[in-house]
Amino acid sequence: METLTKEQGRAAAVRAQQLDGEQRDDLLAVVSALTHLPVNVTDIVAPSAEHIAYTRLGESISFDDVRRAAEVELSLFEHLDQPIPTEPLNILLRPVSDLPLLRGEMEAWAETHPRTAAWVEANAGFRDDVLETLRMDGPVPQPDIEDTATVPFRSSGWNTSRNVAMMLEALQGSGDVAVAERRGAVRVWDLASRILPEVEALGREEASAELDRRRLVSLGLARPKWVGDAGREVRVEGTRGLWRLAPDAELGPVAPRVSVLSPLDRLLLPRTRMRDLWGFDYALEQYTPAAKRRWGAFALPVLHGADLVGKVDARSDREAGLLRVAALHWDVEADAALRGGVAEELERFAAWLGLGLRLP
């Protein structure tokens, strides 16, 4: 069996994630290659979808291009994804062209989410009220949709009694409703039939195999848990267990380009892969008490070539028109060239956000 070095594994991952030295210029092609952009509208620095698009496309796109693709051009759409049943749901922007691959899982939503489906059926009147509201008045902002639930949603987490949100997400998962736009953090909903094209679903086995294949191509190297039997089996020096390698993965050295990543960048997920391949000590500390944070509420990992070399503690101060950097935390001995490269990239990123840059 082939055995890769960690350096080769990192190179495969970085190239697959479109983070090598080549700058791209086609948003839809990038999203297709990545399979999706994660949606998190937290604006401590920048929303995740826009930030991730920028790190691949740079100044060839504007900040508004991602939302325009989803809300005006309708080439992207918001999709709820759960690649592994035990994992939480993810909100993703995916190409509309992927609908035939995803329609089958939408049709099987109740089967794969029986607890939520039972709650929806217990609130059949509420479900019908929501659909009728959208049919008559859509698109409708989520806060304007009346909660007529007779059985409140129960959860071990923060979703307890968030009846409107949970009903809409269940209906989104089954393909009945869709997000028409976002106004800040507020989702505006409509019937999916008004937003998404009618397509014929691929068979579930065929679709599942193709999604696994695309997921592996977008990751370069992954554990079988995430990609099934896609690619070929390999080992990676210094790690336990087996991996799957994308068929066309390139393993040679990566050009020493600097990228300042979103905390939700796919290169960093799953975190277990990040630790296995890079040994990178990192966690999103947004919900960590301030006194216990090591790197900042929304620290941005720094990629140099195929190496994760540090974190930037930054915050967008839109009132002052500045991207404020409180600290740079280095995981390597950073020479002048690396420090200068990070400063230049932060300056470019700040300008793209319409901000000036304030370094410590």
Question: Describe it for me?
Answer:
- The chain has helices spanning 6-16, 27-34, 48-57, 65-71, 99-107, 109-112, 114-122, 124-137, 163-173, 204-219, 224-227, 271-278, 336-352; strands spanning 3-4, 37-38, 76-81, 90-95, 140-141, 177-183, 186-191, 221-222, 232-236, 243-245, 258-260, 300-304, 307-317, 322-330, 356-358.
- A five-stranded mixed β-sheet has the order 11-12-13-14-15, covered by helices on one side.
- It has 13 helices and 15 strands.
- Strand 13 (307-317) and strand 14 (322-330) form a beta hairpin.
- The chain has a domain at 108-194: Orthogonal Bundle (Arc Repressor Mutant, subunit A), CATH 1.10.10.
- The mean pLDDT is 95.
- With 360 residues, it is an alpha+beta fold.
- The relative contact order is 0.14.
Instruction: Please outline the major beta sheet.
Output: 5 strands, mixed
What is the count of helical runs?
13
Q: Which regions are unreliable across 5 or more consecutive residues at pLDDT < 50?
A: none
According to DSSP, the number of beta strands is 15
Give the CATH level 1 class of the domain at 108-194.
Answer: Mainly Alpha
What is the radius of gyration? 21 Å
How would you sum up the global shape?
globular
Order of helices and strands: EHHEHHEEHHHHEHEEHEHEEEHEEEHE
Distance between the termini: 49 Å
Strand order in space, largest sheet: 11-12-13-14-15
Beta-strand percentage range: 15-25%
Mean pLDDT: 95
Structural class: alpha+beta
CATH topology of the domain at 108-194: Arc Repressor Mutant, subunit A
CATH architectural name of the domain at 108-194? Orthogonal Bundle
Residues in helix, % = 25-40%
